[in-house]
Design a protein that fits this description.
A hairpin with a 5-residue loop joins strand 9 and strand 10 (about 420-425). The protein has a domain at about 5-205: Amidase signature (AS) domain (Amidase signature (AS) enzymes, Alpha-Beta Complex). The chain has a ten-stranded mixed sheet, with helices on both faces. It is of the alpha/beta class. Helix 5 (about 135-140) packs parallel to helix 6 (about 155-165), helix 7 packs antiparallel against helix 16 and helix 10 crosses helix 13 (about 340-365). The protein is built from 16 helices and ten strands. It starts with a helix and ends with a helix. The protein binds glutamine. Glutamine (GLN) binds near residues 105, 106 and 108.
Length: about 450
């Protein structure tokens, strides 16, 4: 598939041909299940002229049916464009194809979608990751030039790692959330999923910037990312995370670190607090916010209402359409916010969140970048994580980043013994996306040379 950089130089006639080609390929490769339209046997949803970019099913595109892959939103047609979509349309890009995801972005495997599974492009017995599994799979399979995902606890970076592509989560507040269906408002960010680091920077440049429609958008200067040559970085390597990861992942990452050192970057060795703390904190904060955000889906305003004999029964029947994982989180979130438990769980989690942010601040007082694995394992098989808690552990290295609000990128650094992609994560300090992309480009070049 051609790169985003190249596609931006093409004429509208040439782009039409590319869209035709994507449509044909998507239909031929229907079983991948990355695009939702495939299940419907129609052409991919299209909006506007320009370079086609695939869109996760939780970002509003005017005139499209946006469902967050949930039964409860079937039939909801969006009346407006998210800010990121407007920005894309103004920059010569156009939304093209809705991508499968875990229901309401809750999950790490895209197995909770109402539309069925998305396959990993490298091995059809394995998951593509989640929750932006569709977005990562279509880019990984060569069925999209680039895609948008959303990341609350790793949902861009983890599927990018599993599908061998680049995925980036901006600093909290950097990209407008206006028009992104909220899961956990203090953690969610939209970001690019692309074939390489430069394309990620190009798409990020288009998406980023203050938006008056989003009260959590940051009114900070938004300089376009530039790549500079020859800068040497100080990189903090998180030893306890690397030690815990699978052998193949550990080896691929240690190889990159060795090369970085050879090229003259300074490596310092650090540890972060036990990642179990991050998981516990995240699943209190995220479920608390989700229980509140998802209360708006009651059959009165959006999507698919199921009429009962009275109002209460209508609410009940309508909300019964939520899948198991979503219900579990609404209940958990309601519990941690309930008056008897608020102090014990929610307030405690907010305190630990603060500690997590402090840990990152401390690291960035000494280093330009932090380096970790993206996941403890490569892509796992469908159905292999039956216990929800086990599924939650696939995000142990990504969710701290969301809790702290810092930017991070996942990029491919090799394959394991089963030919599944391995991802590496770089993290930068708040609003320092430029260092993040530059560090990622250096790593990408190292990996290219090793091949
Ligand atoms: N896998 C995590 C969860 O299930 C993260 C999801 C996300 O980033 N949207 O909540």
């Amino acid at each position: 598939m051609i790169t985003l950089k190249k596609a931006l130089t093409l004429s509208s006639e040439e782009l039409k041909e590319i869209k035709k080609d994507i449509n044909n390929k998507a239909k031929e490769n229907k079983k991948l299940g990355g695009y939702i339209e495939q299940f419907l046997d129609t052409d991919l949803a299209e909006s506007g002229e320009g370079v086609p970019v695939a869109i996760k099913d939780n970002i509003n595109v005017k005139g499209w049916e946006i469902t967050c892959s949930s039964k409860i939103l079937r039939g909801y047609v969006s009346p407006y464009n998210a800010t990121v979509i407007e920005k894309m349309l103004n920059s010569g890009l156009s939304p093209f194809g809705r991508c499968n995801m875990d229901e309401f972005a809750m999950g790490s495997s895209t197995e909770t979608s109402q539309y069925g599974k998305t396959l990993n492009p490298y091995n059809s017995n394995c998951v593509p990751g989640g929750s932006s599994g569709g977005s990562a799979a279509v880019v990984g399979a060569g069925l999209a030039i680039a895609a948008l995902g959303s990341d609350t606890g790793g949902s861009i970076r983890q599927p990018a790692a599993f599908c061998g592509v680049v995925g980036m989560k901006p600093t909290y507040g950097r990209v407008s959330r206006y028009g992104l269906t909220a899961f956990s408002s203090s953690l969610d960010q939209i970001g690019p999923i692309t074939q390489n680091v430069e394309d990620a920077a190009i798409l990020y440049n288009i998406l980023a910037g203050f938006d008056k429609n989003d009260s959590t958008s940051a009114p900070v200067e938004n300089k376009k990312i530039e790549f500079y040559t020859n800068k040497k970085f100080k990189i903090a390597v998180i030893d306890n995370y690397i030690d815990e990861a699978d052998e193949d992942i550990k080896k691929a990452i240690l190889d990159v670190i060795k090369e970085l050192e050879k090229e003259g970057h300074t490596i310092i060795h650090k540890n972060l607090m036990n990642s179990k703390m991050d998981v516990a904190t995240y699943y209190i904060v995220a479920t608390a916010e989700a229980s509140s955000n998802l209360s708006r889906f009651d059959g009165m305003r959006y999507g698919n209402r199921i009429e009962g004999k009275d109002l209460k029964e209508t609410y009940k029947l309508t909300r019964t359409q939520f899948g198991e994982e979503v219900k579990r989180r609404i209940m958990l979130g309601t519990f941690v916010l309930s008056s008897g438990y608020y102090d014990a769980y929610y307030i405690k989690a907010m305190k630990v969140r603060h500690l997590i942010k402090n840990e990152f601040d401390k690291l960035f007082s000494e280093a330009d970048l932090v380096l970790t694995p993206v996941t403890p394992t490569t892509a796992f098989e469908f159905g292999s994580k039956k216990d929800p808690l086990e599924m939650y552990l696939s995000d142990i290295y990504t969710i701290g980043v969301n809790l702290a609000g810092v930017p991070a990128i996942s990029l491919p650094v090799g394959k394991d013994g089963k030919n599944l992609p391995i991802g590496m994560q770089l993290i930068a300090k708040h609003f320092d996306e430029e260092t993040l992309f530059n560090g990622a480009k250096i790593v990408e070049n190292i990996v290219k040379e090793e091949k």
